[in-house]
Amino acid sequence: MTKKEVQLEKIKQDILQQKVCPELAAGATQLVFGDGNADAELVFIGEAPGKNEDEQGLPFVGAAGKFLNEMLEAIGQKRADVYITNIVKYRPPENRDPYPDEKAAFLPFLRSQLQVIKPKIVVTLGRHSMECFLPGLQISSAHGQPKRYKGQVYLPLFHPAAALYNNAMRQTLIDDFMKIPRILAKI
Question: pTM score, two decimals?
Answer without folding.
Answer: 0.97
